[in-house]
Design a protein that fits this description.
Number of strands: 5
Helix content: 40-55%
Distance between the termini: 23 Å
Strand content: 15-25%
Length: 165
């Protein structure tokens, strides 16, 4: 199964594609979708849509996992991230890809085993789980890989649960 993990943002949206084969996970690709700071919001959102559509078309993931908005001190940041999330959810769903959403707490618990883990701990575990030579950069891409890993772990647990019923 190939999963597209997405860490939403307006300036930078992280993406990570993780493939599951049995109990092994492998990073297929990861990176960021960046929009120029001076670009108007509608054009930024269109750029996110276009680049994400290209990634989906190229890799054809079976499902996608998107991080939910948790909490920001700045209301303006929440609004812009929410706009980006809306475009991301629309783009993925309109491509016919199943979308699941996870909180930062769920992602940290799934990847590190501790919901209050810091960013560095998450990055180190992503590196280990995916057998990468170095920590994936930038942070947004590492977060997107963690979100994809979280989804694959959740799917595996759901399969175990269904088989026991």
């Amino acid at each position: 199964m190939l999963v597209l993990g997405i860490d939403p943002g307006t300036a930078t949206t992280g993406f990570g594609l993780v493939e599951s084969r049995g109990s092994r996970l492998r990073a297929v690709d990861y990176g960021t979708i960046s929009t120029p700071a001076g670009m108007d919001m509608p054009e930024r959102l269109c750029l996110i849509n276009q680049d994400l559509s290209r990634i989906i078309s190229q890799y054809k993931p079976q499902s996608a996992a998107v991080e939910q908005i948790f909490y920001y001190h700045n209301a303006k940041t929440v609004i812009t991230v929410a706009q980006s999330r809306g475009v991301i959810l629309y783009t993925v769903a309109s491509a016919g890809v199943r979308v699941c959403e996870y909180t930062p707490l769920q992602v940290k618990q799934s990847v590190v085993g501790y919901g209050q883990a810091d960013k560095r701990q998450v990055q180190l575990m992503v590196q280990r789980i995916l057998s990468l030579k170095e920590i994936p950069k930038p942070d947004d891409a590492a977060d997107a890989l963690a979100i994809a890993i979280c989804h694959l772990h959740a799917q595996r647990l759901a399969e175990i649960y269904r088989s026991e019923l």
